[in-house]
Amino acid sequence: MTSRRPNILFILADDLGWGDVGFHGSQIATPTLDTLAETGIELTQHYVCPMCTPTRASLLTGRYPGRFGAHATVPSNKPVLPNGYHTLATVLRDAGYQTGLFGKWHLGSDAKFGPNQFGFDYSYGSLAGGVDPYNHHYKRGKWSRTWHRNGEPASEAGHVTDLIIEEAQAWLASRPADAPWFCYVPFTAVHVPVKAPPNWIARYDEQTYDDDPTRDESFKAYAGYTSHMDAGIATLLETLDAMDARDETLIIFASDNGAIPNCDISGVADYPGDQQGMPLLGSNAPFRGQKAQMYEGGIRTPTIVNWTGTLDAGQIDHPVAITDWMPTLLALADATLSVDPMWDGDDIWSLITADRTEPLDRELYWNFHANQFALRAGEWKLIARGEVLTPASCELYDLETDPYETRDLASDEPDRVQDMLARLETHRAMDYTTVRPDV
Questions:
Q1: pLDDT tens digit string along 302-315?
Q2: CA angle, residues 276, 71, 131, in degrees to nearest 5
Q3: CA-wise closest residue to 359 among 374, 376, 384
Q4: Of the candidates 63, 128, 78, 106, which has an alpha carbon nearest to the alpha carbon of residue 271?
Q5: What pairs with residue 100 in β-bridges?
Q6: Both 284 and 152 in a single domain?
Q7: Alpha carbons 105 and 57: distance in angstroms, whole number
Q8: What is the pLDDT of residue 2?
Q9: Do residue 116 and residue 14 come from a single domain?
Q10: Which of 135, 249, 256, 348, by CA, is between 20 and 30 Å from 275?
Q11: 306 and 412 belong to one structural domain
Q12: Domain residues for 406?
């Protein structure tokens, strides 16, 4: 192991489901991710938020998104982070890291609230949400055109996945050998609109995935989009090899939330360009639920940690969360904050390296849309709905015996429901404590 502080490559897929990767048995080819999982550590209970903005806020702050206001718990064009907030990128930069973001920001669609204002030396991609892969436009309206380079409008031809990879590759290749870096690559793949280069879709021509031709065509496009992203990740790894930097680089891969199983035309009609409905898309099997839901399929996603020469291959089967990465990575980078971080996450490096069997004594909390909530405590998970939460609004699952959430035990465990609901309300009381005054 090198004594130098590690480079950090954090790759975040968009809407990729648990069942959409080869190492989980998918029919979609993901050889790069499969190899990273085989030679690295898979976090089998890595939790994110049920949608894009909240997951990104948690990654870059180590805090639950509700702390920043109700708008931070849903996809947001409004700015999420207060001006001057100490993000993961800010603290790493101040500790001597070079920082770059390539892809989707979605924490404020105005450039004055973009990545360059929150710790990134270099940024490129969409300031808003997912975009059409070819015209690079978000939904019609004020924030349709936010494709940028360092906050300035950018206009290039090409598929969005290729452009993100090319920009990240060039940035990486130009890094000086004597300085560590943090490279954050939040893809727009495999978010709708789903459009893959024809040669990638053609790789699935010889197979039939559904008897309905329209569903079959839809899945092949999704599979091609996923495999295309996987190949882009391979390009980044080849760049690290060419730089002789692979042994000095910690690689983390995750998805921001679960997949959607389909998308009718209404789900893409607001995107400029030629759009069509997609009746068969991603899979969260064997878990229940999907994107925008509190069930495991919406918030448990494929996650890999890989560091050649430092981490032995294996699995960690204990709950960890997207909020854990900021305290973990800053400790690894020997970077400290000058203010109280108020983190909701924990440093999980000892779990990853020293003892992969000892679970952390902690609770996990979710606030989605300010009317859907969840709490995981040990193997128990409570889901509650409504602005005023009562036991009648709750579902309760024992994930140890029922990881697929088939048996709601709320009526069988009223005391446990009351206790977990009270603990959830304690977490909820800490929401909206760091809200921008202009939102």
A1: 999 999 999 999 99
A2: 30
A3: 376
A4: 128
A5: 122, 183
A6: yes
A7: 10
A8: 46
A9: yes
A10: 256
A11: no
A12: 363-428
Cβ atoms within 10 Å, residue 207: 11
> What is the phi-psi region of residue 151: left when phi exceeds 0, alpha when psi lies from -120 to 50, beta otherwise?
left
347-368: per-residue pLDDT in tens? 999 999 976 666 667 899 999 9
What one-letter code names the amino acid at 356?
A: R
Whether pTM exceeds 0.85 = yes
Whether residues 317 and 290 fall in one domain: yes
Separation CA 131–CA 22 (nearest Å):
25
Does residue 434 belong to any structural domain of this protein? no
Instruction: Return the structure tokens found at 389.
Output: 């939460």
User: Looking at 325, 353, 381, which one is the last position of a domain?
Assistant: 353
List Cβ neighbours of 437 (8 Å cut-off, separation of 6 or more). none
Q: How far apart are CA 426 and CA 416, in angstroms?
A: 15
d(C-alpha 84, C-alpha 426), whole Å: 28
How many independent structural domains does the chain possess?
2
Which one of 301, 333, 353 terminates a domain? 353
Residue 408 CA to chain centroid, in angstroms?
Answer: 28
- For the record, the structure tokens of 337 come out as 């904050």
- 245: in domain: yes
DSSP letter at 105?
-
CA terminus-to-terminus distance, the chain: 46
Task: Indicate if 349 and 384 belong to the same structural domain.
Answer: no
CA distance 417 to 398: 12
